[in-house]
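Reading a protein record of the kind used here takes only a little practice. Each token is a code from a learned vocabulary of local backbone shapes. With that in mind, consider the following protein and its fold in token form:
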Amino acid sequence: MAVYFDHRIDASDTMGSPSEIAWHRIHPLLAVAFVSTSSTPGGCVDVYLEQGEHIPNAHIERPFQPMLISWHPSKRVLAIGWETGVVIFWSEQGVDEQQIAAGTHRAQITILEWSSNGTRLVSADKAGVLIVWRVDQHGRVQGSPLGKQDYGKQLTHCIFKPPAPGEDLVQLAKAAVSGDENALDMFNWRKVGKGDAPFKAGLQQGITCFVSVTDGTVYHVSEKGKSLQVLHTDGPIRKLMYMEGKEILMVVTEALFLSQHSVGVDGTSQELMKVKLSGKTGQKADIIWVESGLLITATGEIGIRLWDLDKDENYALTLDEQLGFSTGEIINCISYCESKGIIAAGTSKGQVALWRKTLVNSLSGCKIDGKDQWKLQAPIDLEGNIIQIKVMKWGSSKNLLSVISAGIVLILNEQVMSAHFNQQVAAMQVAPNQLNLTFFSSGNQQMLRTDMHVKGVYVTKETIVVWNGKHTTVFEPFGPSLRNAGSFPCDSCVLAVHEESIYTVEPNRVQVRTLQGTVKQLLVFSEMEGNPCHLHICGNFLVVGTDTSHVKVFDLSRREAKPHCNAKNLAEHVPNLGRIASVKCNSNGNNVSILINRLNGTPDSRVFFYDVEMDTLNYFDFETGRPSSESCSMPRVEESEMEKAHPEMSELLGRYPVNHFWDQNEAKLFVCEAVSAVSTPKQSKRSANTETNYPEYKVNAVVVSFFITQEHGLLLQESFPKAVSHEALMGLEVPYYYFSKKSGETRNDSEPMPGAPSILQMVAKRPLRDFVGLEDCDKTTRDAMLNFSFYLTIGDMDEAFKSIKLIKSEAVWENMAKMCVKTRRLDVAKVCLGNMGHARGARALREAEKEPELDARVAMLAVQLGMLEDAERLYRSCKRFDLLTKFYQASGQWQKAIENAEGFDRVHLRTTYYNYAKHLEALGDHHLALSHYEKSDTHRFEVPRMLLEDLQTLEIYVNKTKDKSLWKWWAQYLESQADMDSALKYYEKAQDYLSLVRVHCYLGNIQKASEIANETGNHAASYHLARQYEARDDVRQAIHFYTRAQAYNNAIRLCKDSGFDDHLMNLSLLSSPEDMMEAARYYEEKGLQMDRAVMLYHKSGHFSKAIELAFATQQFNALQLIAEELDENSDPALLSRCSDFLIEHKQFEKAVELLVSAKKYYEALHLCLEQNLTITEEMAEKMTVSKDSKELSEDFRRELLERIADCCMRQGNYHLATKKYTQAGNKIKAMRALLKSGDTEKIIFFTGVSRQKEIYIMAANYLQSLDWRKDPEIMKNIISFYTKGRALDLLAGFYDACAQVEIDEYQNYEKALGALTEAYKCLSKAKMKSQSELEERLGQLQNKLTMVKKFVQIRRLYEEDPKEALKQCENLLMEPELDQTVRTGDVYALLIEHHAQQGSFEVAYKYMEEMTKKLPSVNVTYYINQQIIDAVYKAVGVPIKANIVMEKVRHNSAEDGDEVEEDVAEDSYNGPED
């Protein structure tokens, strides 16, 4: 909580009325312009410090009025513009009137604007003269102006245009090089102090600007003063603004029109949009532009308006009378502090309204936008009879607020309200000079008003000390009031009190004073230890923290303070340490807790613990939820284990500590308040999961207590969210935590004494978890409970029970049972419930043990102990939404129960609706109960029951719902009341035809009942009507309606009794098998119409009886129909008998099926062969006995399958035969069957699957019979199968055949040579029964190989040496067995073609004649080209022989078959070696 101290400036009444105020941007300097109120004209300007002290040399007075005051952005230089056109400068060195020469401006100064980097100053006057000045590094105007422009009209506004990134860096670099220390400091971030404005590249304003004149024209002004008109508005301009980053110039006119203009590099502009702002016209509007894109306006209304230009939305903020504002209070002026996010507004009733910006909702933890992010604070009432606040401004790095009000200037300084708790006394500041005191030991409260603005307070049970940094006052209780016990000047910023001593600080020492301020002892610190800046006393120990991060403890138990330990330097152990934020010690002085800030000024997420005796420094980190490393005395716990032991630990993560205290009596008990920090990725992920699983909010602040000992380190004792009404943690003293209350939450919890003044209760207490219900216990019980809690936390159950074994109080045991809910120790809880005598709770806990989740069992314990919030949280954490629904119902939280069931427990949603409806009915809320009965889908019987006493409402409900069930119920009710007409109407609406027929029959309208039954066909109605007709002996109508009701047995009964045999047959066929058999017996007994008896026996499934009767009566047609429906499930004997009958009547196919069904497979096969019946695949499958069959042996099964396959072979069904042979395991026969089928693809597949030698050979032999020459795949399979079948002799024969084909058909002796080579290799590896035969074949193959090889070599030699080749050809022709391998014609062709090409036609003719003689039956053209033959005969002059000519004619008249065949062969054959 914060309070604003108001300081009135030190100005005399003769100075006049303040007209203008201006804060320095960095330094706490306020310039105030005064206008004389006397008859003598004139004015002055003065400069004041932050508390209103006047600076002696800062008084500039002239006989004319000051119009503008403007501070240099970084230097302590003030520019003042006067009504005569004079510009005067003030600095710490004094007043300077010579920087701008007199006469430069001859009219009132209207613009006086510095560039943000301080290198330029723009001045303009009412006559329209604008001048741009250069400013040096000391803030002084240099020489003549850079540019001057005369516009001829009054200039009103000026705004600098931000430069492109890098432009200002150059300007600042030039200033740094020229010796400007401020510029140098901006480059060095380490030297930028708090409140300074560090340099940001690209964000500094440059040296070009925009100015406006009174007629609404805006000009762009360059550095040299050159001007360019960029836009013109419809009226005078109220405000000029520039949106950085988007290069947009914004203009607000006096008529409140807002326009946006894009600005080019050269200053040209284009209007983007124009809109009218809301507000009163004709009044002076106060307009503020915030760099984040927010425009704030105050136009003399009861509120202010905000325009978010980035999001294109606007909203209004108004005053709230409940916070203390008056009705009709008008806002006149506004100011915005961007660093704090506060809008300050001055009202017409002398109050200051503050709206504080918050981006995160403290309840939901979610980001909020718009109006909801601004929270109105309590108003600030200023002293005196204030009529109107005129001007207010924020300023300086300390964010001070200055106000001009009723002729005075006030400086408002925000100060955190002081608060202190010690020795059962609490002090809380409620106003700058007022304290609220609470004495908890006596229950008294007092208000203490001082004559100073209190900046600090320290209380003990005997003294109250307040100070303001310059003066200290001591108060003592004196009866029912307080008296001043002493007052003395003291500059100490911190103070502590112990018994009769006051401890204050000054550089390098702590002063020990009496209550009257006399120094009686000095505690000196070395220069290295630093200056004391933090003091805290607990028990008899004082801990001191210094500005060099040293900590030292003193023992105060003796007459003089003595050092308890050496000073500890934290900087040596904590990296990135900025400064100490707070130090506290425990009552034994052996442990000190420390909060620190980092180097960048942000608070550290760790709380450090300095063990004085062990001289060790440990910590607990709220960011990660982990203590320090293993080397520390505190044990390190993994996050998963910690969350498992303490699920609430997840609520602690991502925070940092702000307050910490030790119990004033218990040395090991420590408490800390931690608030949410900026989200890290890890925390954000955790928070997202938490929000998804649990629809609860993440609280902003939590309070955590620990036990801290040397043996066990840091142990979490309790954690809970800080209440919304609590401001901050003030202290801890068992059995209570103490909190300060927020403003507006300070109502008195107890009733005031009669006649006593009502004093607001500013401090709240909350009992420790272990002491709920034991707040007034004695010291023995308190110590026992603390020991129990400690031992329970460390897990030492023996010591825990020892510490409380003598306690007999039920309240103590109940409190410990409640503690078990927090610690999840159900074993301890059972003992506590037993000592409490809580039988119901013990039973409920025992029954809850069946639940698998620990949290669910603990939740049941919480329910029994009345801890409903904990039970709800536990059920939700373990996701037992079913139990949570029951819990909500049992606790009367019906709305939550329904929401939970709708979102997470839809299985029990209807049950929840029903239970809620029952609850509402019990409360008498029938209307809401009715709605929930409908949601639970139980309204059809529950609503009539509920509304039975209110028949009129019930009838209205029945008619409104239009539900058939309700209509039927209402009709039944009306029938019971003898209102038959109305009952019939509602029965008809409900379409209850049975009831309609029943009522009509009751009324005697049987004809109407018949019509209804016939029209609707309702079975129940027809049955009821048939009974009525039967009672009236109208048999035909009764049979008709029994038939419509499908009550065929009753209809059959009437037919038999009445002799209606024709109807009997039809009804029997429609009825059940039992009725069919009864009818069949009826026909059989009568001996007439036996065909009907057979049919009925057949339809009823009694085949044996039907067949027996059919045979007996020779009804063969019926017998044939029956036989068609027999299957394998029928009686085998019956099947056999029927099959004989079918054979006799030539129905062989059906007879075979019946034989197969009767499992007479051989007879079926015999019949198939005998009658030449085709065995289908379906029939074969039926005759195939499965392997698992126990009726037939495996041998019989195989024999049967082979017989089936043999039959299929005879019938030519080779594929089926193959399948059956395979099932029988005879793959050889299966292969033979498959070979007969000629299915090459299946043969190849079956061969690959079978993997038997004989099958490989059979397949290869088969494939040789195909045209393997044109299909390479077949050739590859032949080779592969012969190889796998190890038939190398057959493979050799195949290669030999390949070679012969190559020679005979393609004359390709090279491939033939390769094939013969492979054949020889295979044959040489083959094993034959006759070795002599093998040798003979090898010899023949060798001769062939030799001949072919010779001819191939001759062909190759011919290319190199034709003569030698011809010679060898002649020798080759001499070989006796040449023609068996090499064709003689090919050899002669080589000789003839050679000689013909050489022109030796005679020789060629001789060889042709020789060839003809040797091969008389061979066609010569088969070997020699026809052209060569013609050329030879022509050359020798011999006519062509007749056989050659005829051959030629024959060849020419053919379809060129040889050539086509050759082409095909070449395309399809690649040779064996490929």
In short: The mean pLDDT is 78. The chain has 48 helices and 62 strands. Residues 1331-1360 form the longest helix (30 residues). The two ends are 98 Å apart (CA to CA).
